[in-house]
Amino acid sequence: MDNPNYKSGFVAIVGRPNVGKSTFLNRVIGQKIAIMSNTAQTTRNKIQGIYTTDDAQIVFIDTPGVHKPKTQLGDYMVKSALSALNEVDAVLFMINAAEKRGAGDNFIIDRLKGIKAPVYLVINKIDQIQPDDLLTVMDQYKQALPWKAVYPISALEGNNVNEFLGDLVDQMPNGPQYYPADQLTDHPERFVVSELIREKIFMLTREEVPHSVAVEIESMKTQENGRVHINATIIVERPTQKGIMIGKGGSMLKKIGTMARQDIESLLGSPVFLKLFVKVQPGWRDKSNLLKSYGYRK
Ligand code: GDP
Ligand code: MG
Ligand code: K
Q1: For 258-285, what is the mean pLDDT?
Q2: Which one in 155, 239, 249, 292 has a CA-CA gap of 20 to 30 Å to 26?
């Protein structure tokens, strides 16, 4: 990608459950690449979808923990969500126009205070209110944060969505096309599979191995008998972490593999053979090109 005018960025969408985040993503990205996984929110930046045109690419991410925590992991995830929010180029805070501002909204607003990225207020479901009521909604939020802009939309019916998207693209910095335009179309499951493996690693080893782990899917092939054969490499920073990953006599790696395989099987709906490797790559987190290939960005 050598177009110096190409624009790209990472955008986080936050908001209470049911305000329409997924509906918005589906409208923006289309069926073809919306990745929806029902996995527990234990990953740092979950890619929800990638919007790619000839001139721009926006990677929409989920930032678990900005939402009111449901689990004991909450505190930990809130911290990591906040650091993720400082790495994105914009944050979309979505509300439901037909509902009063509530505790769930305030929880998120509190967490958005002080982050560096510009925050957009997206007032969704305007098809459900009278035009006059929009002002009342805006009044409730006007002072809450220094909004970059306020966009009333209907994700369901499409009102104002393209205008908003166009403005959002304009706000993105110049940058590379991080992901090939068709990558997620061809292999949407690859990303989810690697996230599922990371999630198990996180669940089983989180005390000892914090966010210094990446998972790369080396190959994913469906065999004639219908079984999907997956080779994946777990990349860690230090030899000690490799030891933790493998565990006594390989016991940890086996646990990770078994749990991940079960989830992948239900995701794909076919039997899976999952082979895991562990590789030490010192300082992989500092290498931005590596980060990119692992789906992260520095
Ligand atoms: P999420 O939990 O924030 O991802 O919310 P969803 O995208 O799953 O949407 C929750 C519900 O709101 C679904 O029934 C959607 O069809 C509905 N919904 C989403 N956007 C709109 C909208 O703009 N107008 C209306 N009337 N309903 C919407
Ligand atoms: Mg959703
Ligand atoms: K998701």
Answers
A1: 86
A2: 292
